[in-house]
TrEMBL record:
Residues 4-125 form the DUF985 domain. This is Cupin domain-containing protein. It comes from the Bacteria. InterPro entries: Cupin_DUF985 (IPR009327), RmlC-like_jellyroll (IPR014710), RmlC_Cupin_sf (IPR011051), YML079W-like (IPR039935).
Length: 154
């Protein structure tokens, strides 16, 4: 299936700011309150999850496609470069990003696509999101990878 057919089949839309394509597929509700959410999230050669901050935990599940690199900038100043992808190819199919970290995810290679699902509890809200900028290079000087995970505007 080509990327455009996949976008249409799943009803994905571009995600402003962060990048990639998404669709909320489930909302966890209890007594009329939104507790959590699940989205499909597609990363392509042109559009990826640029560095951003969330105050709550987010769990990433690799579904299919090509392997991804996920950069996590921890609140203690350390950083991790994780491989998310098919099990057995030096990658893991699941990644837990703790709230209070900066994160960005893009293709490991230069070509292809990857379909993931992410879950957040509590559910995503605009107020918990901050877009990463070049200022992160100064806050994490020991991390050489920040530049490639910033949005083109950053």
């Amino acid at each position: 299936m080509n990327i455009q057919a996949l976008i249409e089949h799943l009803g994905l839309e571009p995600l402003p700011g962060e990048g990639g394509f998404f669709k909320r597929v489930h909302s966890f509700m209890q007594e009329g309150r939104l507790l959590g959410s699940v989205i499909y999230y597609l990363i392509t050669e042109e559009s990826f999850s640029s560095l951003h901050y969330l105050s709550t935990d987010e769990v990433w599940f690799f579904l299919e496609g090509d392997a991804l690199d996920q950069l996590v900038l921890n609140s203690d100043g350390s950083h991790e470069l994780r491989r998310l992808g098919p099990l057995g190819r030096k990658s893991q199919p699941l990644s837990i990003v703790r709230g209070g970290c900066w994160q960005g995810t893009k293709l490991h290679g230069i070509k292809g696509w990857a379909l993931c699902a992410t879950t957040m509890c509590p559910a995503f809200e605009e107020g918990v999101y901050k877009q990463g900028t070049v200022e992160l290079k100064g806050k994490y000087p020991q991390c050489p990878d920040i530049g490639r995970f910033l949005a083109k505007e950053g």
